[in-house]
Amino acid sequence: MRIALFVTCVNDLMFPRTGQAVVRILERLGHRVEFPEAQSCCGQMHANSGYRAEALPLLRGFVDTFAPYDAVVAPSGSCVAMVRESYPRLAAGDAELSAAVAALAPRTYELSELLVDVLGVTDVGAHFPHRVTYHPTCHGLRMLRLGDRPQRLLRTVRGLELVELPGGEECCGFGGTFAMKNADVSAAMLADKCAAIRGTGAGYVAAADNSCLAHIGGGLSRGGGGVSALHYAEILAGLVDGGKTDGAA
Amino acid sequence: MSGTGNIVARLPFPTAARNELADAQLRANLRRATHTIRDKRQRVVAEVSDWEALRVAGAAIKDDVLARLPELLEQFEAAATAAGATVHWARDSAEACAVVTELVRATGSTEVVKVKSMATQEIGLNEALARAGIAAVETDLAELIVQLADDTPSHILVPAIHYNRGQIRDIFARRMPGVDLAALTDEPAALAEAARRHLRAKFLSAKVAISGANFAVAETGTLAVVESEGNGRMCLTLPETLISVVGIEKIVPTFRDLEVFLQLLPRSSTGERMNPYTSLWTGVTPGDGPRTVHIVLVDNGRTDTLADSVGRQALRCIRCSACLNVCPVYERVGGHAYGSVYPGPIGAILSPQLTGAGANRTLPYASTLCGACFDACPVRINIPEVLVHLRQSGVDAERRRPSAERTAMRAMSWVMRDRRRYAAALRAARRGSAPLRLAAGRRGVVRRLPWPLSAWTASRDAPLPPQRTFREWWAARERDNTP
Question: Where does the LUD domain start and stop, copy by copy (chain B) (predicted)?
Answer without folding.
Answer: 73-298
